[in-house]
Amino acid sequence: MKKLISLVVAIIAACAAVPLLSAAALHGGGAMADCPPTATPTTAAPGIGDAPTVIAGWDAEQTANIATIIGVGNTKRVPPWGWVIAVATVIQESGLRNLPGGDRDSIGLFQQRPSQGWGTAKQLADPAYQAGKFFHKLLTIDGWQQMPLTDAADAVQRSAYPDAYAKHEADAVVLVSAVVSRFGRVIPGGVEQCVSSLGWALPAPGPIVSGWRTADRPTHAGVDIGAPRGTTIRAAAGGIVVTVRCNVSEGTCDTDGSPSIKGCGYYVDIDHGQGVTTRYCHQLRRPSVHVGQSVAAGQPIGIVGSSGNSSGPHLHFEVRINGVDTNPVPFLAASGVHIGQPV
Ligand SMILES: [Zn+2]
Predict the structure, then answer these.
(1) How does 84-122 read in b/e, with b if 16+ C-beta sit within 10 Å?
(2) What is the mean pLDDT of the chain?
(3) Ligand 1 centroid to 259 CA: how many Å?
(4) If you measure from the C-alpha of residue 209 to the centroid of ligand 1, how many angstroms do you get, rounded to a whole number?
């Protein structure tokens, strides 16, 4: 079992950048035009082979079925959001189990029916076959990546209870994340091209104008990205917003700060789980997220400005692991995201 999952994860690690880049090309410009496609990871991700065989609350059979679905989706170059739709569908249809029967002549993981042209009963007994049929049909649906999960799933399944899929979206994201990456990947529809195969995104484009703990700034706990005023700031990975605050030693966060003012200005902290947090400082105005909000990798959380201890517009970005600040550049590079991309 573990071998299978490791294999699937290895395949994803090797190939996922291709469909991600294809998705970027297909999407063209649009709302995400300022989100550069992520690059293939240049180094093996830490712990990529450590995907859990059993995820809390789900047993090995269910986890193996998720790995099968993801493996088939990846082979067919279905973007990761499609994997989430498939897993949410299967949670509803069969509880992630390859059932021998079901309602009328429904069979298996996806509860597809021989009488409806999905295949023979023998073919449909194979989870990989069912997953393949699901993805084949999903890819024929115009605009499926922009649809609510329920609509996309029902366009494939034609369920009597289409609204039932939506309630499994959060679980599906977590399960796909756990199998694909130890970092708890969260994949929003429509910004997949912003997100690396390991679930991380560039917080803002722009050159590095000041590095982490450099010789002349040994206490500089983050990296300064020289993005212009007004640039969208994106969550570097999925997580929960734990801080939204204005922090200045004098004045307000609604005007530009200066080097003589102390504080991060308007800033956001996101907790990504597993002891990893990120911080986004000097925002132009009160951030668009609130404490307790779940955010996805690549999701906009604010706008670049110059509030607080700042000499000009930029994003001060920090990564902390168990509270200890860590150089964000190699940390994100290991997850397939390269800070310092041109605006
Ligand atoms: Zn800084």
Answers:
(1) bbbbbbbbbbbebebeeeeeeebbbbbbbbeeeebbeee
(2) 79
(3) 11
(4) 9
How many Å lie between the centroid of ligand 1 and the Cα of residue 31?
Answer: 28
User: What is the whole-number distance in angstroms between the Cα of residue 182 and the centre of ligand 1?
Assistant: 28
Give the pLDDT confidence score for residue 142 in this predicted structure.
92
Q: How far is the CA of 235 from the centre of ligand 1 (A)?
A: 17
As a whole number of angstroms, the distance between CA 181 and CA 178 comes to 6
Per-residue pLDDT, averaged over 6-10, amounts to 38
Span from the CA of 249 to the centroid of ligand 1 (angstroms): 16
Domains of the chain: 2-194 (no CATH), 208-333 (2.70.70.10)
Q: Residue 106 in contact with residue 113, Cβ under 8 Å? A: yes
pLDDT band at 51 (very low <50, low <70, confident <90, very high): very low
Whole-number Å distance, alpha carbon 222 to ligand 1 midpoint, is: 5
What the block records as the tokens of 322 is: 């168990």
Q: Could you tell me the distance, in angstroms and rounded to a whole number, from the CA of residue 309 to the centre of ligand 1?
A: 8
Q: Is the pTM of this model over 0.85?
A: no
Residue 4 tokens, joined: 């299978």
Q: List pLDDT tens digits, range 281-321.
A: 999 999 999 999 888 888 899 999 999 999 999 999 999 98
d(CA 93, CA 164): 9
